[in-house]
Design goal:
Helix content: 25-40%
CATH topology of the largest domain: FAD/NAD(P)-binding domain
Strand content: 15-25%
Radius of gyration: 23 Å
Structural class: alpha/beta
CATH superfamily of the largest domain: FAD/NAD(P)-binding domain
Distance between the termini: 47 Å
CATH architecture of the largest domain: 3-Layer(bba) Sandwich
CATH class of the largest domain: Alpha Beta
């Protein structure tokens, strides 16, 4: 039994900070087969229970170990319509790989890397035959939002034979997969490919349809027998500090949207400039903060610092994303919190005022609560600030749907089956959870599809 996993090669930090091309290079066929052979095919595989979308992990790895790449991707797509995406952005180290028995005395099987490989290897092939689709039903289902929750719910229902229409507020599909994750971490060609596959299942995609404005939930229910709400969390959070509205202070949402959707990273070929200056500060330490910091570096910043009020151990970002940020020269100012922003004569942010923190007793999240250190305030010069402390759910649909019950913070209330307060209307993803992971949103979409199927059947 080989204890060490087959490592996936990455582009060097000095090379990759100069462009927006993907960082990991992926496995070769030989490397993938070698890693797949590490799986010991447990009789009671714990890895499957760690997967929110219930991928039959040992089964697909067994096919790959024999060199049957097509059979491997077929096995994955029985439960997961987005393997190329999951293989890149899912936190496998906290889910399926954490439960791998090999991890007890060595390194777990690189499940995410293998999933990515089989999806990429078969990208140009049709991976689901028409025989796998159920007989077409008369029932129609509306999906609101084409992010990971909506795409998953749509794919599962289409495979069950339902007539599925997906409504997307933007002109292109993908939701947060497209506007929120940089090209070097998730190439948009991958998103296009996964969405194209879902269209082949018969899903009708309607872009430029802002539900809550163009149509309401009540109006949809006149033409559709069920609705799934997966409109995401697009309302940025701020700290309500002095000077927070100064020019040069972005929400991570706006910053990444400009770069990803409006192609600011291709300026001047695309006329969407994003001025970052020499000194950039990112507030927060999640995956979005890491993305924002690494993007700023690629846009020409000379010094990029991440300010986080807790210590390294409490940072919510994936370990590999933190590691890559460190490799690329991102600085970390830990146990530090912003207090105010100060402007220059033109009204643009010029300084950030911070205070030192220390860790106290654990709070509701289980992490130790940061406590300000008296008389520890300090200032430092800055040209751009990116606030990456999370997002709240999009408020439009709840505002236009009085019968839809929500939490005080704006999240749609659902039961254990993703059913809302309105019959035959489910919800999932960030509109329910607040800003969360891609795979948790996909899990919600899958559960909602089962609920809708049960109700309509």
């Amino acid at each position: 039994m080989k204890k060490e996993r087959t490592q996936m090669k990455n582009r060097s930090a000095t090379e990759r900070v100069k462009d927006f091309n993907e960082v990991p290079l992926g496995y070769t066929l030989e490397e993938a087969v070698e890693e797949a052979k590490r799986c010991i095919q447990c009789k009671n595989p714990k890895c499957v229970s760690g997967c929110p979308v219930e991928v039959k992990i040992p089964a697909f790895i067994a096919e790959l170990a024999k060199g049957n790449v097509q059979a491997a991707v077929d096995k994955i797509k029985e439960t997961n319509a987005l393997p190329a995406i999951c293989g890149r952005v899912c936190p496998q180290e906290e889910q399926c790989e954490m439960k791998c028995i090999l991890g007890v005395k060595g390194e777990p099987v690189a499940i995410g890397n293998l999933e990515r490989f089989v999806a990429d290897y078969t990208r140009k092939q049709s991976v689901v035959s028409s025989k796998q689709k159920a007989e077409r039903k008369n029932a129609r289902v509306a999906i609101i939002g084409s992010g990971p929750a909506g795409l998953t719910c749509a794919a599962d229902l289409a495979l069950l034979g339902y007539q599925v229409t997906m409504f997307e507020s933007l002109h292109v599909t993908g939701g947060v997969l497209r506007y929120g994750i940089p090209e070097f971490r998730l190439p948009k060609a991958i998103v296009d490919q996964e969405v194209s596959y879902i269209k082949t299942l018969g899903v009708d995609v309607q872009p430029d349809m802002l539900i809550g404005s163009v149509l309401t939930i009540d109006e949809l229910l006149k033409d559709f027998q069920a609705v799934f709400i997966g409109s995401g969390a697009g309302l940025p959070k701020f700290m309500k500090l002095k000077g927070e509205s100064l020019e040069g202070i972005y929400s991570a949402n706006e910053f990444l949207f400009r770069v990803n959707m409006m192609k600011a990273y291709q300026f001047p070929n695309n006329l969407t400039p994003v001025k970052v200056g020499k000194k950039v500060v990112v507030v927060g330490a999640g995956n979005v903060a890491m993305d924002s910091a690494r993007v700023a570096l690629r846009l020409g910043a000379e010094k990029v610092s991440i300010i986080y009020r807790r210590s390294h151990e409490e940072m919510p970002a994936r370990k590999e994303e933190i590691h890559r940020a460190v490799e690329e020269g991102i600085e970390f100012q830990l146990l530090t919190n912003p207090e105010a922003y100060h402007a220059d004569r033109e009204g643009r942010v010029a300084e950030i005022e911070c205070i030192k923190m220390e860790l106290g007793e654990p709070d509701a999240s289980g992490r130790r609560r940061p406590v300000p250190v008296a008389n520890s305030n300090f200032k430092q010069p800055v040209d751009t600030v990116i606030v990456a402390i999370g997002n709240d759910p999009n408020p439009l649909i709840p505002l236009r749907t009085p019968s839809l019950k929500t939490e005080k913070w704006g999240g749609v209330i659902v039961d254990q089956n993703q059913l809302t307060s309105i019959p035959n209307v489910c919800a999932g993803g960030d509109i329910v959870r607040g800003a969360a992971t891609v795979i948790s949103a996909m899990g919600d979409g899958k559960k909602a599809a089962k609920t809708i199927h049960t109700a309509l059947r």
